[in-house]
Each structure stands twice: as C-alpha cells, then as structure tokens.
Design a protein that fits this description.
Elements lengths: L6 H10 L5 H13 L1 H19 L9 H8 L7 H8 L1 H21 L1 E3 L5 E3 L7
Antiparallel strand pairs: 1-2
Protein name: Anti-sigma-W factor RsiW
Family: Belongs to the zinc-associated anti-sigma factor (ZAS) superfamily. Anti-sigma-W factor family.
Amino acid sequence: MSCSSVKYLSLMNKVLDQEATDQEKQQLFEHLASCDTCRIHFNELKESTELLRRLAHPQLPAVFTKTVLEQLPPEKRHVIRRWGSNHPVLTTMAICAVPMSLVMIGARRQVHGKNNYVLLKGLGDQT
C-alpha cells in the first residue's frame, strides 16, 4: 500500500472481522472513496476472507484427542524431578538444608581469638 497510514490497514481488518464500530466503518469507507490503492487492497482482502469462509471445516471424530494422546511416547522424566514436582515443600526444604549444613559444619571449625574475633582454622593450623 502506498498510503502512509497503517491505521487504515488495521481498520480494514476490523471491518472484515466484523469488530469495527459504525464510526470506524464510516471512517474507512470515506478513506476508500478517495484512495485507490487502499480500495484495491481492501477488495483483495475481502475476496480472500470470503474464500476462507467458504472452506469446509473438517469434523474430527469424538475420540480423536484420546487416540492422539495414547500414541504419544511415555513421559521420560527423571525420578528426582518427578518427586520434586510432586513434593515442592519438601524439595525446597532439602535445597535449603544443604547450604545450611555446610554453614553449620564451617561454624564448628571456627575458633574465637583473644578479642572475640572469629578465626578460621586451616587444615595445617595447630593453635
């Protein structure tokens, strides 16, 4: 379209989808009366929409969904992930327990100095 406004393209779609208000329809048709390019584009869209509406819509059997779901491969989820998704509270507690355990183990290795500063024992320290 050579028309600079994208607004009219949006209006065309709204009119063809029967979602436009009377004011929007009037505004579009006034523009189409003066713009040949937009009028040709609108007529092409209108013909395309009519062709799509005429297409036959296939009717699926009632058991279609069930048949497709039965043919899907079995779910391959890891046992821990499946357990974790079934028990979110326990999973969260377990995830928090590991770092807290490491903190507690580290705290047992601490030594207080003369000025109540916390000193860490190294593996080779003999104080």
